[in-house]
């Protein structure tokens, strides 16, 4: 019986009372306030300004001989720079693009064919593939080979065998002169 | 009619899964018994808001502190710069640090009001002695935590506060200097000191949370005291916590957050010495060194006593004294409302503490020294002489028969509850 009187009070005309309205608007406003307050705490976990200030790296290409591979660092990650000899370029260009797991012609992955610049992080689970240092195992395609789970990349850094789904990522970069690039 | 909803036996959740859980882990039962339906004296005034406010600010301090710790570097060479990095480079770092910094001041302000409320209304008396003592434990833990937090930015004030406070222990006879060396982990305040202070500054707030839970267990054992200071006699004396006090506490919280926000956004450095924005220099002491405002009274007592060991004992004693207040106060009447003399004498204590605060903030010379000594003596006289004596000589006014009768008139239980004292 107490319930009956209470339901009459709370479910007055038009299915809602002044109290329902006040509770809803106050809760909504409070909820928005909590979200707005939470944002600075969440955003503080994003990269800080001094971290973002490290987001470009300049590399002088002049000392890199034909056939030499160099590892630069950009945003804390390794960037593979490969001064490709003509036979590597040819091998990369001669592949039937439609047969690739992540189809991409070599021309879409370089700005100048003799310079291949890409992020040296395996697209499977983030290990750094072998092949950038002399004496490393370069895998059956002469490119790079990831020791963690056996992904094999060709001389254009495209995935050819193993579990990785995608080609090695090309970072944003530009040639600031014939022999220098700015990554980022 | 409003009372019926919480006195009716709780049937628990309807959902079968929730019922399964409830049978094994009585979560909703606890929420109902200790929060929503918690029987609260119907006459609580706004001074009773400060307990829940203290709980909220504790959570704010822990959340902002955990985020700050993600950006802070506890190393003597890097700490100061890492705090400046928080202020300049970390997204909203300035906001989070200012919340944490001013939150400490707000926490003390709230807890001091909470404490004086307890003193006025006799909340420490039978059967709430342990409740009160746990509160004193929380206050001591807060002081330790705040002091160590103040050291972390490794500015000039941080460094010299750490030096002075740790040197208090050198007053201990025979072992004093060995204890201080142990606290420092070296021969001066240095990197080992900073590292252990950071570790403890992170740890102690969680110890405070644990003691706060005990404080709540003790509170709910006999229920809240109230402005009349008389025991509740039955359901007509109480109303459920929800919605009556949830809404009242939320309103108080809103007002508090406005005050807090004014400091955070418009005067965030109001309570800090500018010297703390100078990196710590172990070779130069600032000309005028003062603690944070919430420690000034203890500091004034320390300085007012011309003997090193005695000064330290009295400064710590002023705090430890609070533990025995339930036995120092010999009056059986809780609320000062019914104590015609204590009602006025009570106010001498906050005035005395404010005077001590003034003394602590100013250089010890001339009149300041005299005021400091008088105020120090009064502080101890108030607790050790006046409280026991008043209970004997004072004739309390007659107490109301029940809370409901005092609030609602002699026809208690009829009609709507009005807000009253």
Q: How is the quaternary structure best described?
A: heterodimer
Helix percent of chain B reads 55-70%
Q: Count every helix of chain B, treating DSSP H or I runs of 4 or more residues as helices.
A: 17
By helix and strand content of chain B, what is the structural category?
mainly alpha
CATH architectural arrangement of the largest domain in chain B:
Up-down Bundle
| Anisotropy-based shape of chain A | elongated
Instruction: Show unreliable segments of chain A.
Output: 1-8
Order of helices and strands of chain B: HHHEHHHHHHHEHHHHHHH
Largest sheet of chain B: 2 strands, antiparallel
Taken together, the total number of domains of chain B comes to 2
Average pLDDT of chain B works out at: 93
Provide a descriptive summary of the structure in words.
The complex is a heterodimer of chains A (184) and B (421). The radius of gyration of chain A is 28 Å and the shape is elongated. With 184 residues, chain A is α+β, with helices and mostly antiparallel strands. Chain A is 26% helix and 21% strand. With 421 residues, chain B is mostly helical. Chain B has two domains: 43-228 and 238-287, Up-down Bundle (Cytochrome Bc1 Complex, Chain C), CATH 1.20.810.10; 290-411, plastocyanin oxidoreductase (Helix Hairpins). Mean pLDDT of chain B is 93; it is low at 1-9 and 413-421. Chains A and B meet through helix 2 and helix 3 of A and helix 4 and helix 6 of B.
């Amino acid at each position: 019986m107490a319930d009956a009187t209470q339901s009459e009070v709370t479910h007055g005309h038009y299915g809602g009372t002044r109290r329902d309205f006040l509770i809803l608007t106050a809760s909504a406003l409070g909820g928005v306030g909590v979200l707005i307050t939470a944002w600075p705490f969440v955003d503080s976990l994003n990269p800080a300004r001094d971290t973002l200030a490290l987001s470009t790296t300049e590399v002088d290409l002049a000392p890199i001989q034909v056939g030499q591979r160099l590892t630069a660092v950009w945003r804390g990650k390794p960037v593979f720079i490969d001064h490709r000899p003509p036979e590597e370029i040819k091998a990369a260009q001669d592949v039937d693009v439609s047969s690739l797991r992540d189809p991409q012609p070599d021309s879409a992955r370089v700005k100048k064919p003799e310079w291949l610049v890409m992020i040296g992080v395996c697209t499977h689970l983030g290990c750094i593939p072998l092949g950038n240092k002399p004496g490393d195992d370069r895998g059956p395609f002469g490119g790079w080979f990831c020791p963690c789970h056996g992904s094999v990349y060709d001389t254009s850094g495209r995935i050819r065998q193993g579990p990785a789904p995608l080609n090695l990522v090309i970072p944003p970069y530009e040639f600031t002169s014939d022999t220098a690039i700015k990554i980022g | 009619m409003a009372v019926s909803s919480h006195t009716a036996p709780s049937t628990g959740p309807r959902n079968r899964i929730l019922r399964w859980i409830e049978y094994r882990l009585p979560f909703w039962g606890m929420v109902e018994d200790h929060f929503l339906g918690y029987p609260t004296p119907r006459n609580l005034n706004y001074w009773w808001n400060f307990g829940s406010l203290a709980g909220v600010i504790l959570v704010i301090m822990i959340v902002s502190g955990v985020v700050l710790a993600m950006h802070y570097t506890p190393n003597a060479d890097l700490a100061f710069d890492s705090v400046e990095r928080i202020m300049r480079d970390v997204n909203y770092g300035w906001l989070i640090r200012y919340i944490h910094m001013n939150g400490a001041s707000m926490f003390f302000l709230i807890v001091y009001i909470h404490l004086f409320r307890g003193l006025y209304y006799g909340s420490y008396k039978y059967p709430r002695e342990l409740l009160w003592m746990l509160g004193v434990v929380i206050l001591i833990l807060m002081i330790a935590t705040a002091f160590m937090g103040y050291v972390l930015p490794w500015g000039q004030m941080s460094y010299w506060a750490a030096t002075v406070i740790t040197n208090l222990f050198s007053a201990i006879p025979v072992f004093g200097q060995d204890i201080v060396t142990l606290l420092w982990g070296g021969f001066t305040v240095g990197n080992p000191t900073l590292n252990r202070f950071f570790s403890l500054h992170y740890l102690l707030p969680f110890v405070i949370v644990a003691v706060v839970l005990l404080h709540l267990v003790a509170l709910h054992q006999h229920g809240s005291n109230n402005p009349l200071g008389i025991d509740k006699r039955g359901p007509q004396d109480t109303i459920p916590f929800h919605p009556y006090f949830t809404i009242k506490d939320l309103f108080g919280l809103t007002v508090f957050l406005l005050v807090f926000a004014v400091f955070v956004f418009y005067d965030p450095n109001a309570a800090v010495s500018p010297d703390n924005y100078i990196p710590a220099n172990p070779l130069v002491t600032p000309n005028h060194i003062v603690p944070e405002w919430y420690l000034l009274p203890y500091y004034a007592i320390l300085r007012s006593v011309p003997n090193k060991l005695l000064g330290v004992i009295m400064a710590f004693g002023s705090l430890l004294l609070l533990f025995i207040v339930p036995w120092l106060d010999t009056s059986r009447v809780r609320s000062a409302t019914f104590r015609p003399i204590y009602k006025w004498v009570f106010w001498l204590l906050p005035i005395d503490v404010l005077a001590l605060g003034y003394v602590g903030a100013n250089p010890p010379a001339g009149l300041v020294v005299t005021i400091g000594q008088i105020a120090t003596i009064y502080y101890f006289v108030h607790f050790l002489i006046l409280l026991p004596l008043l209970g004997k000589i004072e004739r309390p006014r007659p107490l109301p028969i029940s809370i409901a009768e005092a609030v609602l008139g002699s026809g208690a239980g009829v009609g709507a509850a009005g807000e009253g004292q």
